[in-house]
Design a protein that fits this description.
Order of helices and strands: HHHEEEEEH
Radius of gyration: 18 Å
Strand order of the largest sheet: 1-2-3-4-5
Helix content: 40-55%
Strand content: 15-25%
Shape: globular
Distance between the termini: 64 Å
Number of helices: 4
Structural class: alpha+beta
Length: about 150
């Protein structure tokens, strides 16, 4: 068979969900650049986070609403913002932690995670993400402690 008769199988580098997340991120960056004052930007970004949470399926929405309240209480200096279409919380413009709904990437559970800007270093290995199926009062307390430490 000559090379002109060969068929090559095209493989997808990114899933449809990953491509959608990248498009959401591009839109977030454009929207942020259009905002005028710092106060307007903060209010609009928090409103966008609340709106994104409201769009989630019931179980994820309930967890995201609780996490939003816990993060705001534990670390009021973290600024809510959308990050790849997910609710996130930033310090000096850098995302410290985020909530990823199970639906986002067709996962079987939601995730609460921390980025490298989080001040959670402990020894040579530490967790950066937690699987969530529901939130208990103990879970909320632990998340609050972690967020407070991460923001510090």
């Amino acid at each position: 068979m000559t090379s002109s008769h060969r068929t090559t199988k095209k493989t997808e580098t990114f899933t449809a969900e990953e491509r959608a997340a990248m498009k959401e991120r591009a839109q977030e960056v454009k929207a942020s650049a259009r905002r005028s004052s710092r106060a307007d930007k903060a209010a609009e970004e928090e409103a966008a986070v609340v709106a994104k949470i409201a769009e989630m399926q019931d179980s994820d929405r309930v967890m995201a609403e609780r996490i939003h309240a816990v993060v705001k209480s534990a670390a009021p200096d973290l600024a809510p913002k959308l990050w790849y279409g997910m609710p996130a919380y930033a310090k000096d413009g850098k995302v410290v932690c985020f909530f990823q709904s199970a639906e986002k990437f067709n996962a079987r559970y939601a995730t609460f995670g921390f980025n490298d800007k989080a001040n959670l270093d402990e020894g040579t290995m530490w967790p950066t993400a937690f699987a969530l199926t529901k939130l208990t009062a103990a879970d909320e307390a632990r998340i609050g402690e972690l967020v407070k430490r991460a923001a510090g």
